[in-house]
Every structure is written in structure tokens, then in C-alpha cells.
Amino acid sequence: MDQEIEVKFYLASPDALRQRVIAAGAELVQPRVLERNLRFDTEAMDLRAKAQVLRLRADQTARLTFKGPGQAREGVLERQEIEFEVSDFGAARRFLEALGYRAYTSYEKLRETFLLDGVQVSLDAMPFGFFAELEGPSAGAIRAAADKLGLDWNRRLTASYLDQFEALKARLNLNADALTFEGFRGLTIRAEDLGVLPADAAEGKENR
Q1: Is it true that domain 3-206 has CATH number 2.40.320.10?
Q2: Which residue from 64, 136, 138, 145 lies 20 to 30 Å from 81 (Cα-Cα)?
């Protein structure tokens, strides 16, 4: 089924959460890898106006993704997602450009992925902080996994990383077109800069 059901959590202590994921018996399905993502749209930004996403991603493989508008249901984000692997990242980019699309931004993340009770738990190091993304078959399954890992459900996030990036740029008056580790080198981004609260706040206090 071409559907994405997910939620994110901002982390104060990512290493501690990783240990809880392992202790819970989660299976490692992808070791930590650098992801590079390109987002495409028309010159008039027609896809963005319809809350649609066209993305080309490269990590251990290359994948092309379409996402439809998201809807918040039962505390998680649900949206249509069609994703498939492509054999040649460069050729896929030229294909999209030949159709009239352009890469208008890019972003990076370091991601390690586990599977816990049918829920994909991705531990993400972003240029502006650390997050856990939980994706599963239902809101109930995701909530159960979050509870098992000690994540505060009331502090969940449904905004995408690029949406958070745009809000951060406006809040701090940053002049950046891409969300990259190099672009954030030397910057210290706090939870309050992002307008979020750590979902593992109790763990964070213990480690101060």
C-alpha cells in the first residue's frame, strides 16, 4: 500500500535512546549512512502549492519518491507515498529535469534504522539536531513503539525536516539554501531555536 504513516521526536540524548532501542530487541536493518536528498519542483513551484513532494535520494541506493498532501490523524502524519529504487542517480536527475522539474533545495542526514514490533525506528542526525522518526502500519503501532522507548507522545512532531529548516531560517534570519552539515558547521542550534521540546527530556536532564 502506497501510504506513509509517521511521526518524529526531537532528542536531547540520542545515544541513550539508541541504547533503549537495542535493549528493546529492535533489529538493525540499515547501519548509519549519509543520505543526500534533492527536492524537485517546477519553476512556478506547482508541487509545493499542492503540498506534494518530488524527491530523489541517495544513500546505499538511489530512490525516487512522490508524496501527496499530509493529513494529521490520531496524532500522526498520513500521506500517500510512492517510492521505488532507481539504478542511476544522475540519470534520474536528468530525467526529472528533462520533464521540466528543477532541484530547488537539498538536505543531508545521517540515518540508522531499526525495526521494532513492525515499526521502523530511524535515528537521524540532522545538521540542526537529533531526531527519531517512527514509521509504521498504524498510529496505534507507532504510539506503542514510542511508549516502549520512553518517548513523550505529547512532544511528537509532524513537520518535515525541510519545514523545520524553513522555520529555523526565519527565526534566526539564516541565509541558507540547502540543509547540509557543512552549511551548519560552527553553529549551535538549540531546541528553542527550533521551537520544539525534547521527547526524551527526562533522559536529557540525567545526562547534564
Answers
A1: yes
A2: 145
